[in-house]
Structures are given as structure tokens and as C-alpha cells.
Amino acid sequence: MCCFSGPVNSVSATKIFARMGEDGRQFLVYSMTVDAANPLAMVLPLPVTKDSDENAVHFINLKEYPNFFADVESGFPRPAPHFFGDGPAPASASIQALPVVQVGDFEASFVPTVKDFHRLDPRFRMPPELFTKMPDYQHFGFAVFKLKPGAQTVHPMAFDFPAAQPEHLFFPTVHVHDGKVHDTAEFDHVLYCQPGGPKSLKLSAWSESPKHAKSFVSIKKTEGIVVANEHCYKRELQGRLRNKDTIVLST
Q1: Which of 62-76, 116-130, 199-213 has the lowest mean pLDDT?
Q2: Which domain range does residue 32 map to?
Q3: Which residues, 6 or more positions from 94, have their beta carbon under 8 angstroms from its beta carbon?
Q4: In CATH, what number is assigned to the domain containing residue 207?
Q5: Which of 8, 31, 97, 212: CA 20 to 30 A from 188?
Q6: Domain count, the chain
Q7: CA torsion 103→2→223→76, rounded to 10°?
């Protein structure tokens, strides 16, 4: 789910990369083009392990690699290659504020649970009634990125988190752009992934890069996110679709 703490004029060209790393921690890289009149926060709910604290998410600075997604995309020549697989309470002075991390052009925080949003800067909180309509997220944590006003293509936002289900890959693709949860939404997403390890994932409808990632990605600049000697996989979500997160299951 991608949701915003205030109104946005437009959101487009969303790109997400995911890989399961070691010790059950999932890498996630996120970028988009957004236009908003005022400062606001983008919130990405994450299926984290139970009892994760405010330091459970490790934010990764990719400011020096703004072309990350352009490079990943370059590994998929057109026409597309062959397919793989078978088919809260009010704040008070006594409440401890959540840590804020400077990550490139962003300030970022991790909110461990829905009940911890009151510890966040009031400008960037989500309305508590929103999550009563979304019971599936009651046990999620939330990565929060504070964005500047104006039209912008944000440099890739990256982090890893302790995944509650490390046998799956999770992509936050639910839309909440107007404070409401709609059954369907207009998608303009490109998803990328690497299977990461010996697990076999259900990657039907995903196209496979003909070459290993090291041939088209600057591996060192990814800070360990991308594995050099693995192929990448790609899936496009375009048009009006069911408004839900995307989960790649193991076989």
C-alpha cells in the first residue's frame, strides 16, 4: 500500500524492486513521480515480524544512484524476453518521538504499529480511522518518507525489513491517495525482483532478463540490494485493476 498524509495532485511512474536477503530480511526499493502542493509523507505498510521496534527497518541511501531503475529496466530489451514459471491516541510531552533518519533527500522514520502513529510528527500522521477500514494492516509496520512540495520524480527510496513471511516477496501496491480505500485503482506500476536464494517463486507473468544483473546494474552502488549473478524479473501493472498489494508466493 502506498498512501499519503495529505492530498496529491498526481502520482505516476511507480517502480518497485524487491529481493529477499539473508536472515529473512526483504529489500525494497521504491520510486515514483508525484505532485503535491504541500509537504507530506508517503507511507508504505510492511508485513514485519511480530514485536519489531522502531529500529527494525534499515534505510539505505541511494541518492548517488538516481538511475537505479533506468539501469534495471535496461536489462529487459523489447520485445520482452521469454517468460519464467508456470503460470491512535493524541500526542503528549511524555511520549517518545520516533527516530528520524536522513536518507538522501528524504527524512524517513519507521512506525512499528498502527498505534505508534501518534509518535510521528503531526504533519505526517495518517488519520487513525483509515486503518479501521483496513484490518489486514493492523499487524504491519510502516516506512514513512517525508516529501517536499511540488512536482518531482523522487530518487529511489530503499530499505530492508524483517519479513513476517520470508518465503514470499511483498510489493506495497494498494493505493490510498485521497484518504479513502477504493476497490479498484488506476495503476501505473512496474515491478522488478530477484528470487534471492534457493527458493522457487511463482513468477508466472513475469519476464526474465536475458543476462545476469551485473551486466546492466552498477552492483556496488546498490549497497547490497542487487545480486550480481542472478537474473532480474519484471512485471507491469497498468490500467484500472483491483486495489491490492502484490505478493509473490513460493512454489
Answers
A1: 116-130
A2: 2-87+96-248
A3: none
A4: 2.60.250
A5: 212
A6: 1
A7: -140
